[in-house]
Amino acid sequence: MISHAESPDRLLVTEATGVEDNNPAIQEDTLRREMNAAENAQTQEQSIRAEEARERETEADEDPLEQQEAELADLKKPAPRATSWDLYGSARVRYRVTEDDAFWADGGSRIGLNGRIPVGTDKWIFGRAEVGINLLEEFDFLFDRGTSAYGGRFGDTVFPRLLYAGIESPDFMLTAGKNWSTYYRVTSFTDRFQGTGASASGTFNAGTDGGFTGTGRADRVLQTRIKLGARRDNAYLRPGKLNIQVQHGEAIPAVEGFNYGTTIGVSALFETDANFSGGIAYNHATIDPDDLEQLRSRGIDGDATALALGLRWYGEDWYVGSVLSRLNNHETTGQFNYFDGTGLEIYSQYQMVNRWWAIAGLNYLKPDDDQPLAGDFEIRYGVLGIRYSFNDFRQMIFANVRLDYGTSVDGDPNGNVYTVGVRWDLP
Q1: Could you say which of 30, 125, 181, 389 is the most buried, measured as most Cβ atoms within 10 Å of its Cβ?
Q2: Alpha carbon distances (Å) from 45 to 5, 39, 40, 48
Q3: Model confidence over 164-210: pLDDT tens digits?
């Protein structure tokens, strides 16, 4: 704190009058100004740190539209005005050890192209095409064909991850194609583990990417994302987010010859400037009542529904998120029989020192007691891990252990899984 003898206000008084002013009112006013200046500096520093943490976690989200939305929401940065085309990729490889085996595997490598064209002063049309690729198998085919599967060809492991086009403004977005779902906007709170996790929320149900039912990377989906309320400086509550999507006629996963009717997904989220946020998501896939008599043999006795409630909070060097889910006719056992159940996911991370982060969390999904086809099936595991981040989530090496206490339908234990890996995003 500046002493009274050094106070600029006091020096001005002295210079103007030629004598020091010992007026208590002037001294109190000077002290008040000094305290306000210190408080403003502290508030500004906290705001900068909160914004840096927000950018880190936005970049960590698997849904690239999260980052695209954030760019338009940032009042301090000019909106993009030029046409842009961006080619990107991510190499993700891991080595995994189970109780029965040890092997190298791909961990979600992908390559994509994203384009954005301004139309008017505050609107853009955009599109994205992204494919997944098993790097290890493709490299094996190129450089060691003798060990590749007979009849295999280069590119066999390539599959579509995202393919959509849309129009956006700072407050509204409309897309059509294969896109991350409205449901995932909430369940992404805990989809942060490397090489594991996302087992209990119903996002990637029935051994799929969630495309058919619409809770993961939804297939052939028409989707809107709407901001609620205007963004104002110094406002504690940031604009809310309302997301709606619709699909029709998608296949019921793991049940040949049957399709959903209309599927609707809705989610809503709030967020504060302190980086505390919450959301609720609901997905409803209708099933023709005339099909239920045959589908009951697979555990389906009504429409497929998924409800998720999520909370998260994070700061400069920590993050914690949780998702509670309720699933009906939505998720399956290892034998692909459907059941009703309740799930919980928790993810947390803490920056220990420099670039080293500690990871911990759990996944728990338990079928209801009245689900005979579920048998003793249960997902129940904890995760402990560590990562070294060269560039936050974009470039890292990691190691984790999945302490698995879950069981199969027959009651057999799943066994622990140990994983080390690397993720390297480009550019």
Answers
A1: 181
A2: 28, 10, 9, 5
A3: 999 999 999 999 999 999 999 999 999 999 999 999 999 999 999 99
Per-residue confidence band for 8, with pLDDT thresholds at 50, 70 and 90: very low
Could you tell me the residue range of the domain that residue 301 belongs to? 52-80+88-107+164-426
Average pLDDT (75-90) is 85
DSSP-assigned beta bridge partners for residue 178? 163
Judge whether residue 5 has pLDDT over 70: no
207: CATH: 2.40.160.10
**Domain-embedded: residue 253:** yes
Query: Residue for token digits 């969630």?
Result: 210
| Number of domains the chain is built from | 1
Question: Does residue 4 form part of some domain?
Answer: no
pLDDT surpassing 70 at residue 3: no
Question: Is 119 inside any structural domain?
Answer: no
HSE-CB for 171 with a 13 A CA cutoff: 5
Cα distance between residue 98 and residue 230, in whole Å: 51
> Is 193 a member of any domain?
yes
**Tokens representing 277?**
């946020």
Q: Which residues, listed in sequence order, are joined to residue 217 by a DSSP beta bridge?
A: 180
From residue 138, give the alpha-carbon distance in Å to each of 141, 161, 392, 412. 5, 17, 28, 34
Q: How many helices (H) and strands (E) does the chain have?
A: 6, 17
pLDDT greater than 50 at residue 19:
no
User: Can you tell me whether residue 72 is helix, strand or coil?
Assistant: helix
User: Token match 């920056």: residue?
Assistant: 351
Which uninterrupted H or E stretch holds 88?
A: strand 84-97
Distance CA 84, CA 117 (A): 7
